[in-house]
Design brief:
21 strands, 28% helix, binds alpha-D-glucopyranose, eight-stranded parallel sheet, five-stranded antiparallel sheet, alpha/beta
């Protein structure tokens, strides 16, 4: 297997709005990231993915871009960005930007031009259809609730928008638009950016027959994502993108391929022959749990194990893989797959052992390393996400009450991941002197960086060990390149796997359940690398694991 820096990287995702506010206006910014580079370097990561920082009306917190060549004043300016890149590089940290290719903001000059007349030179940069029977062109749903189309009054036609009303989809069939995108991506790479996380890229080709979906309607529209996900033309465009932007550069790319993509489809992006991206993020492991009861939910452990195994073995030897537990679109990890009470520490450490010794490039999400949890959302006005506000009216129309909707969203909303990073126990968690728009989780007095940084037993210290094993230790190659094999496949509670390379072997064994369980254990431990309890009980070839107990070890 060919060695590459991005195969050995340990990534850290930053949601800039929530990370650190250097000018105390209540919104995180690029200088705020610069201030925390020492923290990140100490954590040991060597790659940062920053969510969009471009100029934007912020309908979707920056994913609605109105100028790809500039930084939104909320986040700083281009000089801050250059300084960030330079300072990160001097610490051995690379930076990838979030590249939004599927849509722009409706305030982007292209769209402002495009909507002005049917024959404007930018009209065809977007996707237009006329009304059918005085209704939207078809019954396709948008990801953010309602129709995937919006009427544009001046010309009387509908434009496609699979996210919010303010995010018109770009037409990738238009070669001028594609050239503009390549130019822009090259400009960022020339500036020193080390690659891209490519947003919503599975959707850049659509079923252009634009026929109604036969799928059952939900809230009046068909959530038939197949009409605009992972279609063959996506690959036609990405091969060109690779040729015009990536080829001959030592940069990395990770594409967001969304729900529903199979490992086989993923390989169409990342296989050695595909020549498109280095790796993709899939969403499959984000749904293997039941609603929260008290301090924890019931993880659907067997389902989760199956999912991990499917992706590990599906891509191994054929392409590369990306590993993550959560991102800015998912609730907090401890609230989903861990325990927020008595077993906070143990479950957080267990979850790190489960994910980060698998095969692929890991990405942790800001706040994960200190065990941040979901926010106690109580009413609609607590939420910021455009998707939640958009979807309420459709939920009400289906007979769901507002309080039921709020309860469900509170547990599942992506706003959970977007509350400010908790740096210390001072006001606003040390994030900003000004009260931020996305409220700080009230548990910031207990859960924060300052309280963990000098505590050997903390979640933060544990993450440092995990990261260092992958990036610096003598087992680095084994963990980055070793063959993955699942062990104890049928165990309902314990997820375990082995990695092996050149005669070296590592095992990661985790009880993912709140009760104690045991498994057969015939291995001989040569070196215990990590464990989340003080003692380890192995008797008569059985390993006895306490609630959420987990180990990583080198075996003979
Ligand atoms: C991706 C992003 C998400 C955003 C959407 C539209 O899924 O991760 O945050 O809302 O694309 O850009």
């Amino acid at each position: 297997m060919e060695k590459k820096w991005w195969k050995e990287a340990f990534g850290y995702q930053i949601y800039p709005r929530s990370f650190n506010d250097s000018n105390n206006d209540g919104v995180g910014d690029l200088r705020g990231i610069i201030e925390k580079l020492d923290y990140l370097s100490d954590l040991g990561i060597n790659l940062i993915w920053i969510c969009p920082f471009y100029k934007s009306p912020m309908d979707d917190n920056g994913y609605d871009v109105s100028d790809y060549y500039d930084i939104d004043p909320l986040f700083g300016n281009l000089d801050d960005c250059k300084e960030l890149i330079e300072k990160a590089h001097s610490k051995g940290i690379r930076i990838i930007a979030d590249l939004v290719l599927n849509h722009t903001s409706d305030e982007h000059p292209w769209f402002v031009e495009a909507k002005s007349s049917n024959d404007n030179q930018y009209r065809d940069f977007y996707i237009w259809q006329s009304s059918k029977d005085e209704k939207e062109p078809n019954n396709w749903a948008s990801f953010f609730g309602g129709s995937a189309w919006k009427l544009e009054e001046t010309t009387g036609e509908y434009f496609m928008k699979i996210f919010s009303d303010k995010m018109p989809d770009l037409n990738w069939e238009n070669s001028k638009m594609r050239e503009e995108m390549y130019k822009m991506a090259n400009w960022w790479l020339d500036l020193g950016i080390d690659g891209f996380r490519v947003d919503a890229v599975a959707h850049i080709a659509r079923d252009t027959s634009f026929k109604d979906s036969t799928m059952e309607l939900y809230n009046g529209y068909a959530p038939d994502w197949q009409k605009f996900s992972n279609l063959p033309d996506v690959h036609k465009h990405l091969k060109e993108f690779n040729e015009k932007v990536l080829a001959n550069r030592d940069v990395m790319t990770v594409g967001e391929v969304g729900g529903g993509a199979t490992p086989k489809q993923a390989l169409e992006y990342v296989s050695d022959q595909a020549k498109e991206f280095n790796m993709v993020f899939n969403f499959d492991h984000n749904h293997c749990y039941t609603p929260l009861e008290g301090d924890h939910n019931q993880t659907k452990i067997l389902e989760l194990k199956k999912t991990f195994n499917k992706w590990q073995t599906g891509l191994q030897g054929k392409g590369w893989n990306a590993l993550y537990w959560l991102n800015h679109d998912q609730p907090r990890l401890l609230s989903r797959y861990g325990h927020q009470g008595k077993y906070r520490l143990e479950s957080a450490k267990m979850l790190a052992n489960v994910m980060y010794f698998m095969w692929g490039t890991p990405f942790i999400y800001n706040g994960e390393e200190i065990g941040m949890t979901n926010y106690p959302f109580k009413e609609m006005s607590d939420f910021n996400d455009v998707a939640i506000h958009n979807s309420l009216k459709f939920a009400l129309a289906e007979g769901i009450t507002e309080s039921e909707y709020v309860k469900d969203q509170a547990e599942n909303t992506r706003d959970n991941a977007r509350t400010p990073m908790q740096w210390d126990d001072s006001e606003n968690g040390g994030f900003s002197a000004k009260a931020p728009i996305l409220k700080v989780n009230p548990n910031y007095k207990e859960v924060n960086v300052k309280s963990q940084v000098n505590d050997e037993n903390s979640i933060l210290s544990y993450y440092k060990q995990v990261i260092s094993l992958r990036t610096k230790s003598e087992y680095k190659d084994l963990i980055c390149y070793g063959l993955y094999e699942q062990l104890n496949q049928s165990s309902k509670y314990i997820y375990s796997y082995q990695r092996s390379l050149n005669g070296q072997k590592l095992i990661s064994i985790s009880n993912m359940d709140v009760k104690a369980h045991s498994i057969k254990f015939n291995h001989q431990i040569e070196k215990l690398l990590l464990s989340n309890y003080e003692d380890l009980k192995i008797e008569n070839n059985r390993l006895y694991l306490k609630p959420y107990e987990s180990i990583v070890a080198i075996i003979k």
